[in-house]
Amino acid sequence: MACSKETLINHGVKICPSPQTQGRGLFTTRSFKIGDTIIEEQPLFSCQFSWNYAYGYSACDFCMRPLETAEENVRRLTANADIILPHPECDETDKSSHIICSQCAVTYCSIECKDHAWNQYHKTLCCNMLGGNPNHPLEKLNEAWKKMHYPPETSTIMLLARILATFIQRIDREELKCQLMSLCHHTANEEDTIAHKLLGSEFESQLELLRDLSIKALGRPETDEFLTPQGFRSLIALIGRNGQGIGTSAFSVWVRKVSENDIDPTTDSLIDTIYQEMEKESGDFLNNEGSALFAVQSACNHSCEPNSISSFPFSNHTVALVASKDLQEGEEIFISYLDECVLSRSRHSRRKFLEENYLFHCNCSRCQLEVDEPDMTSDDEESMEDD
Length: 387
Ligand SMILES: C[S@@+](CC[C@H](N)C(=O)[O-])C[C@H]1O[C@@H](n2cnc3c(N)ncnc32)[C@H](O)[C@@H]1O
Description:
Number of helices: 15
Distance between the termini: 48 Å
Helix content: 40-55%
Radius of gyration: 22 Å
Strand order of the largest sheet: 1-2-3-13-10
Protein name: SET and MYND domain-containing 5 protein
Mean pLDDT: 90
Pfam families: SET, zf-MYND
Number of domains: 2
Strand content: 5-15%
Structural class: alpha+beta
Bound molecules: S-adenosylmethionine
Order of helices and strands: EEEEEHHEEHHHHHHHEHHEEEEEHHHH
Number of strands: 13
């Protein structure tokens, strides 16, 4: 099956070569107004991070929708079982639709998610033992990964396991391979750098250990080509480079609903207090966290002057690209890979961050405009970078 270079995705966007980045980019095929949703997309694969799951962050095993109520969420993260959250009508968690895998007890937010997971990969990955089985090859693989990749997490080997299991279960493997091949790929050197970033200085021996455990867990004729040394390194680099972070939280949905509907101004100070307590007890680890691979959204290049933003409006793994400026037909759609803080820094700092974390020299319009700025990091920025 041929993978086309210029792919018409739907009536709003297409993927084609980007003059700015030399690779591909995502372009509009009609105009959009600021605030318009350009696309909504389900991932090819998504998975909660391994430590995040182990620490009791509770999300649907398929779509990452929070499974706790907002009140349970704040009680756990503040370690304060006495907090009572008003306005339960703003809590979106519907426990009546939750459903558990009868064989291994992972939980889904709905029967639809359970069926999707089973039909896509869970039939292969289910350990068939309630409460888990520490001797199961997949559990050994996950434990080995956890020892190599501590929080803050940026990926999980279980995403790779889901890809392999999908290959085992899928009938139209060529189509799936084509979708994976269409994600951003790299040279062998770049793959090494990504593996190094994910696994640390001993990445070569660690890669070999992970490969060996993956063969024991999921080695089949259908997965042979991904479990050679080269195939495995490419797959690790693929999830390391293309994985889009996802964060979901029952409390932030509750906060959004309370604030959107202007329900009760007195909740403002309660929200502030809860966030302070959560930060004291749980630091930055407030969300169910994971990562996902998106076929269309992953074609979106970075700009330090973006014209759209990625968001997760349904508190699950569905991504939305929303226009942050008016867009003309044929314009390239750019998001920012940097957070607001880094985005506000000098050209030099932004480019340094992108080079170190994303391995590319930013060639966006803002960087080109600021080309005459001195290549210096100010003292303030230096201390921010150190942080
Ligand atoms: C998620 S991919 C985006 C799609 C990619 N251009 C492709 O051909 O598939 C990210 C990669 O695109 C390239 N890229 C994205 N934004 C860029 C920019 N502003 N300047 C130069 N390269 C960029 C880099 O190679 C980066 O690793």
